[in-house]
Every structure is written in structure tokens, then in C-alpha cells.
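User: Teach me something about this protein's shape.
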Amino acid sequence: QVQLVESGGGLVQAGGSLRLSCAASGRTFSGYAMGWFRQAPGKEREFVARIRWIDGIMSYSDFVKGRFTISRDYAKNTLYLQMNSLKPEDTAVYYCAAQEGSRSWGYWGQGTQVTVSS
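Assistant: First, the predicted structure itself:
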């Protein structure tokens, strides 16, 4: 069974940085993509970034390009999201997710809260 455990959230001032981590376990992830999503209060969950596990190909939503970087440690089965130049509108619960091949995002972590103060 796939397990995803996020960590690294917290409170930061606008313009600051945070790095989120997601420890993945339960299987070999070479055929998977891993991603980050977020959900702000009263809003729908939205895509942030994605990385293909086997070759590291990345994609980002437009609102984080140039500020956030997704990466993974293949040996440690850990996913990261480096968030720089944070804005109050980045405040949300951030979720790690896993996608097998072209299937839907079938596995989710419990989420970690990121709060950016102005």
C-alpha cells in the first residue's frame, strides 16, 4: 500500500521560503509521477507541480513558475517542494500525491499547512 507523509509546513512571512518534504513508501515508484497540490480555505484543490519519478521531468502551474521547485531524491523515495518568494495567497494545505502511469492521482498524503503572513 502506498503511503505518503508530508512535512515541512509552517508559518512564514511574505517573501520567505519553506521546503516541503514527502516521504513515499509501499512500492517502487519508477512508473509513477509525484506531485504537489494545495487547497486554500473555501477553494478547490489545485495543481501546483509534478515530477516524473524515473526521469525527473517537471511541470508547474503558472502561478508558481519561477518561485517553486519540485525535486525528488530517487534513493530516499522522497519528494520535495522548495517554495521561495512566498505570498499570502500561497497560504493553503499542501498535499503530496502519486499518479501511476496515466491514471488519476490515486494516492494522497494527509497534507501540511503553509501559512504566509503579510
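Now, about its shape. The mean pLDDT is 96. The two ends are 40 Å apart (CA to CA). If you'd like, I can walk through any region in more detail.
User: That's plenty for now, thanks!
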